[in-house]
């Protein structure tokens, strides 16, 4: 069995991209990353030797990200609080509002399809099994998601304030 | 002076065949490197708090080249020279101890500090908790005897064999030294052939000569 550090080295970036796409860049994505690897570390000694580490980590990341999204929608924040908790880790001065808005514009189904297929490299059929969908539906969701992300992103880049009306 | 060396001790990722990232997705990797380094630090502390960090390791630069240091919750469990191949040593630790292994230099801070002092000639004995689970049977008795050889002195393989109560086991003492999981800290370099020639060393003959020279100079 590989030392767990090897999984972090090999797949840490992929997991971060999946989390950023599912919950938007920022503190929530960072929390989802941390919870993914902590929970993977716990379960790792019992993982079958022939398991696909990348697919396994993407599966955990998706679950953690969805848990976070649910928690966020269930607990309405009091009005005096800021809607987004500032990142404790993020790069000062860096503003990922554009990406956040582009991601937020996608329905969760499309974000999942893009994350699992394009970022984690899962075949459509496997991504479908994971999300309780069909391979065709995942293929459509992934391609619609990419198209929408691209279109949205172009609008955002061309608008002088980097924000949509 | 020693300092933590590069974190990419383990082989870097080789990208497999996969769909190319369509243009807007590239944005998802923005400032990824610095953030991943911070997230790694956060994982180290979270794993430790949850009691899931079974083996912590780091690599330090030393006058004998990069050294791998690994510790369990009980103490220092492994020191390895570069010629042992640190990737292979970590894989062996995953099999012998636990695959829950993370690079976590903070857990090795005390060992790192004491080794730095030793290499600088400012320390003669190590005061570190040791996890001796990788030493078994006769080898364990040899490894327990070695720290009794004072700094700057040497014993022959035959003297060590006699000291552990098995005077005929001279060759077995040699192989116990060759499989010392904690070289430098457990001073197998202080064991020489009866004719005074240095004999083998797991860090190579030059490393042994360097250590004997360091201790003789003090």
Automatic annotation (TrEMBL), chain A:
UniProt-recorded name of the protein: RNA polymerase sigma24 factor
Domain RNA polymerase sigma factor 70 region 4 type: residue ranges: 97-149
RNA polymerase sigma-70 region domain mapped to chain residues: 7-74
Alphabetical UniProt keywords: DNA-binding, Sigma factor, Transcription, Transcription regulation
Organism whose genome encodes this protein: Arthrobacter mangrovi
InterPro entries: RNA_pol_sigma-70-like, RNA_pol_sigma-70_dom, RNA_pol_sigma70_r2, RNA_pol_sigma70_r4_t2, RNA_pol_sigma_r2, RNA_pol_sigma_r3/r4-like, WH-like_DNA-bd_sf
The keyword Transcription appears for this protein: yes
Top-level lineage group: Bacteria
Protein family: Belongs to the sigma-70 factor family. ECF subfamily.
TrEMBL record, chain B:
Key word Transferase present: yes
Descriptive protein name: Methylated-DNA--protein-cysteine methyltransferase
Methylated-DNA-[protein]-cysteine S-methyltransferase DNA binding domain ranges (all copies): 138-216
NCBIfam families linked: ogt
Taxonomic path: Bacteria, Bacillati, Actinomycetota, Actinomycetes, Micrococcales
All residue ranges annotated as the Methylguanine DNA methyltransferase ribonuclease-like domain in the record: 56-131
GO biological process terms on file: methylation
Places the protein is found: Cytoplasm
């Amino acid at each position: 069995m590989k030392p767990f550090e090897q999984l972090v080295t090999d797949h840490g970036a992929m997991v971060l991209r999946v989390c950023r796409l599912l919950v938007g860049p920022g503190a929530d994505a960072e929390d989802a990353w941390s919870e993914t690897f902590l929970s993977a570390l716990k379960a790792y000694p019992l993982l079958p030797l022939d398991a696909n580490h990348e697919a396994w980590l993407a599966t955990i990341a998706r679950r953690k990200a969805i848990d976070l999204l649910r928690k966020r929608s269930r607990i309405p924040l009091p009005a005096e609080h800021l809607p987004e908790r500032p990142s404790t880790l993020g790069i000062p001065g860096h503003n990922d509002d554009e990406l956040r808005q582009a991601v937020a514009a996608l329905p969760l189904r499309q974000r999942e399809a893009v994350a699992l297929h394009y970022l984690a490299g899962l075949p459509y059929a496997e991504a479908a099994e994971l999300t309780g969908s069909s391979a065709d539906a995942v293929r459509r969701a992934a391609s619609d998601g990419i198209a929408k992300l691209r279109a949205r992103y172009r609008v955002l880049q061309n608008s002088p304030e980097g924000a949509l009306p | 002076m020693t300092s933590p060396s590069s974190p990419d001790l383990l082989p870097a990722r080789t990208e497999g065949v996969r769909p190319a990232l369509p243009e807007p997705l590239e944005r998802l990797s923005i400032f990824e490197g610095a953030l991943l380094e911070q997230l790694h630090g956060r994982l180290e502390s979270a794993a430790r708090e949850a009691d899931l960090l079974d083996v912590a390791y780091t690599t330090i630069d030393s006058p004998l080249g990069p050294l791998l240091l690994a510790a369990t919750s009980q103490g220092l469990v492994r020191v390895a020279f570069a010629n042992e191949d640190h990737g292979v040593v970590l894989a062996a630790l995953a099999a012998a101890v636990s695959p829950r292994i993370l690079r976590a230099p903070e857990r090795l801070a005390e060992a790192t500090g004491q080794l730095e002092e030793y290499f600088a000639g400012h320390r003669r004995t190590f005061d570190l908790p040791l996890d001796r689970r990788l030493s078994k049977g006769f080898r364990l008795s040899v490894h327990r005897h070695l720290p009794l050889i004072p700094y700057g002195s040497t014993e022959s393989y035959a003297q060590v064999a006699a000291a552990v109560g098995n005077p005929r086991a001279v060759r077995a003492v040699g192989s116990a030294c060759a499989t010392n999981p904690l070289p430098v800290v457990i001073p197998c370099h202080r064991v020489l052939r009866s004719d005074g020639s240095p004999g083998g060393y797991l860090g190579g003959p030059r490393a042994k000569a360097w250590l004997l020279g360091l201790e003789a100079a003090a």
